[in-house]
């Protein structure tokens, strides 16, 4: 089967393909930008995005909204992660975290799939903000996020390694489980 992934982030596409294509699900990226509302939750952003997209996409599709939530910053950048990445970036986050001992943070991913109805799948990974940028793989905040149980950042992992433990990998796993149960392929 083939489903569309509406996103402008090629890093997300790479991860979704690495996870789902070996399981027999073909991903067709569609770079259509949709309004991302200013909301308190990733779920609300996804639900609004689907409502806006559903009559504009020729088939079943999914979108994904994600964010990095830093405990010492009361959850910032959270739902504003994309905007913060584009404005103050990794150096800005490291600066805000200077002299902050509590490095705890988590990533969260919310996938919304539309097949006539909306289905939501989520995943979270706990970790810490590093003291400097490390690694060249991945995208976004990967060079400053160290998942619990590891010494290296997401940017020091291969796509497969990251997928096995990441927020997006977990959401994709839930998504795949649902597809398998409901489509009986
Ligand atoms: O695994 C990740 N590793 C590092 N950084 C990440 C990850 N997952 C999301 N992020 C960053 C990217 C973006 O700055 C923001 C999410 O914003 P978000 O709107 O979901 O993504 P986006 O605008 O890059 O692509 P899209 O076209 O799918 O909306 O957090
Ligand atoms: Mg976005």
UniProtKB/TrEMBL annotation:
GO terms for cellular component: cytoplasm. GO terms for biological process: nucleotide metabolic process; purine nucleoside triphosphate catabolic process. The active site is at 65 (proton acceptor). The keyword Manganese does not apply. Binds 1 Mg(2+) ion per subunit. GO terms for molecular function: dITP diphosphatase activity; ITP diphosphatase activity; metal ion binding; nucleotide binding; ribonucleoside triphosphate phosphatase activity; XTP diphosphatase activity. The keyword Cell membrane does not apply. Its cofactor is Mg(2+). Signal peptide: none annotated. It is an enzyme of class 3 (hydrolase). HAMAP family: Non_canon_purine_NTPase (MF_01405). Homodimer. This is dITP/XTP pyrophosphatase.
């Amino acid at each position: 089967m083939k489903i569309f992934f509406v996103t402008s982030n090629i890093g997300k596409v790479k991860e979704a393909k690495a996870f789902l294509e070996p399981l027999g699900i073909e991903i067709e990226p569609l770079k259509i930008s949709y309004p991302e509302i200013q909301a308190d939750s990733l779920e609300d952003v996804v639900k609004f995005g689907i409502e806006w997209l559903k009559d504009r996409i020729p088939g079943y599709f999914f979108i994904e909204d994600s964010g990095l939530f830093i405990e010492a910053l009361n959850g910032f950048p959270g739902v504003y992660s994309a905007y913060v990445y584009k404005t103050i970036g990794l150096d800005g986050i490291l600066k805000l975290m200077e002299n902050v001992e509590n490095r705890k943070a988590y990533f969260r991913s919310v996938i919304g799939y539309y097949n006539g109805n909306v289905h939501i799948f989520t995943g979270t990974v706990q970790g810490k903000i590093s003291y400097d940028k490390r690694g060249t793989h991945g995208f976004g905040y990967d060079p400053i996020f160290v998942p619990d149980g590891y010494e290296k950042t997401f940017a020091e992992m291969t796509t497969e390694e990251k997928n096995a433990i990441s927020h997006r990998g977990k959401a994709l796993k839930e998504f795949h489980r649902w597809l398998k149960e409901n489509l009986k392929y």
